[in-house]
Amino acid sequence: MKPRIAILISGGGSNMISLVNAIKYNKINALPAIVISNNSNAAGLDKAAELKIPTRYIDHRKFSGNREAFEKRLHNLLQDEKIDIICLAGFMRILTKSFIDQWNNKILNIHPSLLPKYKGLNTHQRAIDAYDKISGCSVHIVTSELDGGLVLGQRTVDIESTDTAKTLAEKVLIEEHILYPEILNKFINDRYMK
Ligand code: GAR
User: Fold this and answer.
1) Ligand 1: distance of its center to the CA of 194 in Å?
2) Fewest CB within 10 A of the end CB: N or C in the chain?
3) Looking at residue 31, which CATH number applies to its domain?
4) What's the rounded Cα separation, in Å, for the pair 33 and 37?
């Protein structure tokens, strides 16, 4: 049985689109069950609807700082949808240990740096400020250590002296769109198709 995937987004959703398209073109052995955003105005929600993927949003602001309550709603939705794997794709909420424990080894994330370098935010500016010559992206398993779980794959880009955080982000994003589908498919074939 193909695993059911939930893709969690907060913004534009370009990684979500690359995953959905890869599934549609049979490059990933999976079913794109649902796209969930933590805010109602994430542009990615409309794009997912155009791709005919069911969408939901759970507005984290309505939970006024009660992270557990937000995550309980999210967990229930994921269970209702019989989700096997959660793909974080530009999902900008930190998940608690208790949520992650419930989905142990079933949450993947894409991060715009060559982990373990530059966990957290502003990765591109930090790479430029450090005069790094290469940067890139990583797909990793989500654990309770922020951006700290096992790295499953990476792709690199050269940093030119003319690069800004914006141009570097654009270059890295192109690699993200290649990396995430490849790694998700490998993850599924290794763990679900044997
Ligand atoms: C991507 O660059 C992704 O790696 C990054 O947000 C962007 C989302 O773009 N994720 C993180 O920084 C997570 N800490 P997208 O909405 O177009 O996929």
Assistant:
1) 31
2) C
3) 3.40.50.170
4) 14
Q: How far is the CA of 110 from the centre of ligand 1 (A)?
A: 7
Q: How far is residue 170's CA from residue 29's CA, in Å, rounded to a whole number?
A: 28
* pTM, entire model: 0.97
Model confidence at 105, in pLDDT bands (50, 70, 90)? very high
Q: Tell whether 183 is covered by a domain.
A: yes
Domain boundaries, position 106? 4-110+143-154+177-192
Strands (E), the chain: 4-9, 31-37, 55-57, 85-88, 107-111, 134-141, 151-158
Catalytic residue among 60, 75, 111, 177: 111
**pLDDT confidence tier of residue 192, bands split at 50, 70 and 90:** confident
Active site includes 111? yes
- For residue 28, being part of any structural domain is answered with yes
Please tell me the distance between residue 68's alpha carbon and the centre of ligand 1 in angstroms: 23
Most informative mutation of 15, 19, 92 for ligand 1 (most atoms within 8 A of CB): 15
